[in-house]
Amino acid sequence: MINPLNGRVTIRESQSSEQADILIAGDCCPRLIAEERVLDGQAHDILAPLHDIFATADLSLIQFETPLTSDDTPITKSGPNIRCHPGTIDFLHAWGGDVALLANNHIGDFGPKAAMDTIAQLRDNGFHTVGAGENLAAAYQPLIREINGIRIGILNFAENEFGSATPDRPGAAPLSPALNTRQISDLAKEVDCCLVVLHGGNEHNPLPSPRVVEMCRTFIDAGAAMVVNIHTHCPQGTELWHGKPIVYSLGNFFFPERAPKADDPTNFWYLGYMVRFSIDKGGATAMELIPTTFTTDADTVRPLAGKQREGFFNYINTISAPIADMQELRGFFECWAASSGYPRAFIKPSWTPEDFDAPAPNPNLLGLRNLLTCEAHNELVTTYLRLVEEGRRAEALARKPQLDQLGKASFMLG
After folding, report:
1. Where is the Capsule synthesis protein CapA domain positioned along the sequence (predicted)?
2. Axis crossing angle, helix 326-338 with helix 210-222, rounded to the nearest 10
3. DSSP strand E in 122-242: where?
4. Ranges of H-type helices in 189-272
5. CA–centroid distance for 247 within its chain
6. Range in 161-170, 253-262, 273-282, 337-346 the model is least confident about
7. Element spanning 9, H or E
8. Residues facing residue 146 across a β-bridge
């Protein structure tokens, strides 16, 4: 359980004199109004409230969820194509960290060249990258860093939406749990501390799915010292599995909306947390959550303070509790699936029988492709159809009021 006063949990006593702090931030995409502000020289001002926190880390990582390109080369896909001007790399300079995590569902949005240009620009500007590369082998390549005498290995994988690397095409490192388990096991033998960062899960769901929980626990059992998930655009809970930390979603760090809604302090889109791991040669000795929020006009990112901060920690403890009870967690996920609109894509499909024989890439089929091949979407649709088969959809929906309550940051109103 997270200490509601300081967001910390002590895992164990340190076993070696070599120690380090790793700081990880969630989804970051300085687009739209943020892009304008960064190009106008305001990057340092946006992040100024966090500079003291950044300065305490020995190794900092951030999920950088965009290609840096001015090329007008959007790929054909289901969902939005996201990009940021190359000049927004100044945002990362203001952040001042070390590693850009690139395994995500947007790094390939403007094609292979834009993805490779992004990797090159990041490295030319002094940042390390992991999770994407010129082909599948390069994308899967771990990043190994030695910090304060501790050899740290980082692996970064993303669920199979669009922009994944193939044996002969650049892109993100795709999630492949059986293969990834072997990769983790191999890397853990080479380093003191193996960190696995994943990009996936059901967007806006305050609780991880049973599949995600079982997968993360398997990665720990394979040799990961810590596992961190990113992608859901809302914070999710944490657990210790066999004495090793799993973070189920950091939520957004800085990701301005395309069409900002009226200011709603309970909207989790604008809330997330960074996680700081204190490590030694045996892995994590402590974990600290650092909740943050950014303004709808992308003016600033700041840490939560006072009652909002304490409320956030209590909230994390609340949403972490069901993770320890798989039956309870499954019940919440069945409710999420039962109330989802994704299965309704089959009612009025965008595809016709003729589309299956049309020349590729056929955009009419890509919505279907995303439903079937993205692990999070597939799990949701499969669960929905099983509930229909068993006549339990109405039963599953009984948890909807509770799930809706967990989806609002009510503690921000205090």
Report:
1. 21-257
2. 140
3. 128-130, 132-133, 143-147, 150-158, 171-172, 193-199, 226-230, 238-241
4. 210-222
5. 10
6. 253-262
7. strand 8-10
8. 151
